[in-house]
Amino acid sequence: MTIAEALRRAQELIHSDSAKLDVELLLAEILGRDRSYLYTWPDRQLTPEQQNLFDNWFRRREAGEPVAHILGHRGFWTLELEVSPATLIPRPDTELLVETALELLADMQEPPRIIDLGTGTGAIALALASELPRAQVVATELSAEALALAERNRLSAGCGNVTLLCGDWWNGVGGRFHLVASNPPYISEDDPHLSSGDVRFEPRSALVAEDAGLADLRSIVAGAPAHLFPGGWVLLEHGWRQAETVRSLLAEAGFADIFSRRDYGGHERMSGGRWHG
Ligand SMILES: C[S@@+](CC[C@H](N)C(=O)[O-])C[C@H]1O[C@@H](n2cnc3c(N)ncnc32)[C@H](O)[C@@H]1O
């Protein structure tokens, strides 16, 4: 099989809305090259070992398994993170939260103290820590398996300024922060999207929250004032139809300067507010 023939098999991935990219990523990994190589050398033959591996991975993708789980890693911000079925695969939309946090902290003179609640792979915490080497970053997670994954990612990213904690939202978190960031579970348990696409392979504990998806967002907002310095910010990723509710939660908790930002699909995907004390 040539590279061009392997690439053409993307037509068979009828249930994937990213079939071409999926096949490119699988092939690039197998060949140990970047995706541009595939189009520079379309006539190159795969070795029998490479073809066997491609057939195996292709079948797994055909059965719906996320490409990130097949490869075992996913790019987020400037980092290549190990991923596993223990937690969410980091999404490009979450980079919006990282970008916003960096903008809000840009003028700070002292080293910022940041907390990422429900860190999963460590995506938000490690992206911020790598951009802000003077920052002290705490990252919490309820799942011990996800926490171990975040620790491996912390080590490979070389982020000595990140401390990982096992805990249930604010339980066991001491001290105050300049920025609270979280991408918590926010999907309602009856959401039909839970039975299609990559989310079928991700744990419910990373996706679903009680109270129509709002329970964890409520807990985080409720605990934030006691953990923020005056002038500190809370930034929350949420569902694309939850922005108005999250803005109300922030207002009721006494936050000011409340705002929402849109994701790459044009939906209000994250909201934030400032705690004036
Ligand atoms: C939507 S995932 C986000 C993961 C990561 N922050 C990201 O953006 O890719 C939510 C994470 O919160 C964790 N989580 C769920 N309930 C929690 C709780 N009560 N306390 C702390 N973390 C929790 C899940 O295990 C999961 O890793």
Describe this structure as you would to a colleague.
It is a single chain. The chain has 277 residues and is an alpha/beta fold. The chain has two domains: 3-64, Ubiquitin-associated (UBA) domain (Helicase, Ruva Protein, domain 3), CATH 1.10.8.10; 85-275, Vaccinia Virus protein VP39 (Rossmann fold, 3-Layer(aba) Sandwich), CATH 3.40.50. Helices cover 37% and strands 20% of the residues. It contains eleven helices and nine strands. It has a seven-stranded mixed sheet with strand order 5-4-3-6-7-9-8, with helices on both faces. A two-stranded antiparallel ribbon has the order 1-2. Strand 1 (73-76) and strand 2 (79-82) form a beta hairpin. Helix 2 runs antiparallel to helix 4 (48-62) and helix 6 (95-105) packs parallel to helix 7. The chain is elongated, with a radius of gyration of 20 Å. The chain starts with a helix and ends with a strand. The model has no long low-confidence stretch (mean pLDDT 97). The chain binds S-adenosylmethionine.
Summary keywords:
alpha/beta; 11 helices; 37% helix; Helicase, Ruva Protein, domain 3; 277 residues; Rossmann fold; 7-stranded mixed β-sheet; binds S-adenosylmethionine; two-stranded antiparallel sheet; 20% strand; elongated
